[in-house]
Inverse folding.
């Protein structure tokens, strides 16, 4: 046999590792007897009872506790502490919370790199970019001869109430009237003092962030010989509660780009993939269109990536030769490196698709059978949107509760000795152990609720498709089956979804705690601890994947037979192990079209977003890479929701088939249609002879 390259083996491993694990652990004597059809079996049972009621009660108790904690936080906390900036003396800019009413001064102007700043009425926008003869200090404006701005240009709140406020003098802040000496003076102290220069800014989340042009302009005046790293000093001033950090400029520009492009990210990152995913799913469920859509998606994905790479390269070349220069060297490098990265990614996609071509061809058979069910159940295509809306509703409530909870810390004051005899006061937030424990609880609520929404969707999908499969006349099945499945699943099997999602939530909490320990190990610089925790994280991740696979198949059993979670999990495990070879082979190939669909939706969305951002915001963004990354990330997850319909459909039909086969053998009583029976036989048993990795 020809050697299979690493890329193909990696793709194979992800899809079969869970089944392989179960197969290794299985004992043929423990797999039980084959299924036997109940005397009155005619599809998913209609005689159901509420399953796993205890887990339903626990879920409701968790939601009630979360609501109670949220109400308590809303009464005791103030969300403004999270949204609005805090000045050096503990006043909240834009509010009356603090020693002075700062309602008329909603913006924070940074004075030092310890996040100390003063509240101002507007973020200054200076035509000359900077006035090095004017200092913004803890006590107001301080100006020397040659300054040109007025108090109207930078309206600072009145801090005269504070008798301990440090004030500038010529000796402290501007010795000998020399800007270079001022930069290293006690008052300015290279961004670690109680005063800093008046500069051109833009507003970001009520913070005044220095523009790149203003930094360069000031650098030429106070640091002409580049003796001090001025860019880092100035950049760090916009970094909350942190000291100067290398690479601040990157994050500052990223945050600025995300804020400028926020509406485009919302529309293109959420709206566009919803529309594209819905339309793509509609076409994919039409059997005759399916092959064209799949291969078109493959070539279109590759074409979009290479087209974007070529466009970015040409753009970089155009910018580089422009006279006069219109873009900075950093912008040109970003375009060039982006082009190289897209060429590399496109080449990787070509290699992946080449080695997946047979798998994709086989996978179309899986999707073709699933599309027959989805064609009869058109309403099921809309269910991912309903799930997304439900999750969004939960996220709104959860985010509000968390914002109030995070505002329940206490103000602390730290005196920082920057130079001998000069102390800078810095205010910061400190959380009690109770608030930290509440934060862990809220994180658990997020994990459990999110997984519960996914679990309910999988039960509803499985029940809808199993009703189609176990119908003698499949033409009689329509969207009413989806509506009845929604009602039945919510009324009878909420507990089963809660049980399975609780297991995943607990595992995710363990992974989060391990990640927390990994961060502590990094701080301690312990190589041994980092290695052990990394291995432990991998093990727990494997368990999460295994249980997600087991849960999905347990939900299918619940949808068909109405059994509780534990019984369903056992029956699903035994059923799969008795038919392991065929299920491994078909599971392996079925992911091909799902992967192609996700790549196509994500690539098309990101490609369209690139041209929109370039056309609409070219002169306003430092780089469109940040917004494009978040748009692509959102598109990937949303495309996963739509393609998950087909993935769950394939899994349900496959399990229905093996259950059907065990109950009725090869007799004419089987519910499977001839095309499905022939397809499973051709690509299941033949794969068993060849080996599922062939």
């Amino acid at each position: 046999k020809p050697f299979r390259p690493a890329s193909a083996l990696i793709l194979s491993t992800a899809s079969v590792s869970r089944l392989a694990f179960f197969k290794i652990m299985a004992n043929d004597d423990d797999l039980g007897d084959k299924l036997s059809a109940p005397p009155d079996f005619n599809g998913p049972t209609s005689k159901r009872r509420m399953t796993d009621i205890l887990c339903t009660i626990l879920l409701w108790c968790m939601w009630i506790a979360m609501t109670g904690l949220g109400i308590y936080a809303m009464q005791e906390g103030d969300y403004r502490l999270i949204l609005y900036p805090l000045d050096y003396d503990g006043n909240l800019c834009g509010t009356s919370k603090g020693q002075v009413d700062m309602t008329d001064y909603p913006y924070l102007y940074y004075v030092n790199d310890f996040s100390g700043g003063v509240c101002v009425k507007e973020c200054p926008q200076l035509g000359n970019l900077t006035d090095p003869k004017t200092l913004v200090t803890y006590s107001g404006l301080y100006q020397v001869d040659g300054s040109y701005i007025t108090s109207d240009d930078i309206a600072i709140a009145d801090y005269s109430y504070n008798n301990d406020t440090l004030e500038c003098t010529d000796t402290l802040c501007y010795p000998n009237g020399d800007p270079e000496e001022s930069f290293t003076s006690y008052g300015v102290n290279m961004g670690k003092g109680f005063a800093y220069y008046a500069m051109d800014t833009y507003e970001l989340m009520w913070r005044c962030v220095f523009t790149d042009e203003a930094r360069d302009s000031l650098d030429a005046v106070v640091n002409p010989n580049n003796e001090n790293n001025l860019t880092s000093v100035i950049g760090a001033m916009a970094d909350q509660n942190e000291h100067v950090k290398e690479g601040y400029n990157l994050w500052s520009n990223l945050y600025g780009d995300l804020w400028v492009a926020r509406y485009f990210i919302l529309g293109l990152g959420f709206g566009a993939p919803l529309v594209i995913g819905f339309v793509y799913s509609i076409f994919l469920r039409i059997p005759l269109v399916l092959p064209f859509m799949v291969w078109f998606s493959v070539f279109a994905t590759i074409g979009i990536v290479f087209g974007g790479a070529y466009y970015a390269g040409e753009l970089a070349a155009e910018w580089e030769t422009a006279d006069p220069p219109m873009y900075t060297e950093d912008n040109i490098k970003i375009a060039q490196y982006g082009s190289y990265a897209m060429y590399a990614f496109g080449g990787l996609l070509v290699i992946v698709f080449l080695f997946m071509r047979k798998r994709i061809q086989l996978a179309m058979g899986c999707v073709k059978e699933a599309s027959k069910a989805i064609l009869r159940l058109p309403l099921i295509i809309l269910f991912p949107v309903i799930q997304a809306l439900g999750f969004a509703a939960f996220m709104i409530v959860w985010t509000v509760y968390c914002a109030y909870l995070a505002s329940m810390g206490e103000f602390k004051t730290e005196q920082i000795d920057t130079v001998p005899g000069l102390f800078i006061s810095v205010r910061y937030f400190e959380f009690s152990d109770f608030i930290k424990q509440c934060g862990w609880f809220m994180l658990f609520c997020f994990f459990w609720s999110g997984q519960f929404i996914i679990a309910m969707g999988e039960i509803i999908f499985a029940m809808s498709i199993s009703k189609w499969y176990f119908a003698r006349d499949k033409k009689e099945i329509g969207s009413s089956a989806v509506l009845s499945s929604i009602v039945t699943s919510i009324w009878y099997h909420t507990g089963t979804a809660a049980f399975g999602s609780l297991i995943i939530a607990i595992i995710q909490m363990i992974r989060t705690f391990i990640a927390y320990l990994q961060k502590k190990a990094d701080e301690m610089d312990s190589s041994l601890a980092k290695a052990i925790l990394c291995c432990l994280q991998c093990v727990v991740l494997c368990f999460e994947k295994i249980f997600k696979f087991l849960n999905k198949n347990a939900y299918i059993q619940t949808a068909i037979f109405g059994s509780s979670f534990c019984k369903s999990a056992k029956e699903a495990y035994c059923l799969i192990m008795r038919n392991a070879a065929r299920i491994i082979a078909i599971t392996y190939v079925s992911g091909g079209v799902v992967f192609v669909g996700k790549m196509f939706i994500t690539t098309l969305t990101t490609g369209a977003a690139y041209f929109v951002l370039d056309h609409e915001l070219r002169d306003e963004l430092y780089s469109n890479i940040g917004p494009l990354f978040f748009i692509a990330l959102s598109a990937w997850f949303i495309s996963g929701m739509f393609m998950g319909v087909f993935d769950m459909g394939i899994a349900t039909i496959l399990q229905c088939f093996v259950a059907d086969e065990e109950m009725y053998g090869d007799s004419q009583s089987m519910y499977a249609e001839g095309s499905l029976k022939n397809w499973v036989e051709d690509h299941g048993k033949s794969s068993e002879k060849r080996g599922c990795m062939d």
Observations:
- Residues 316 and 332 are 5 Å apart (CA to CA).
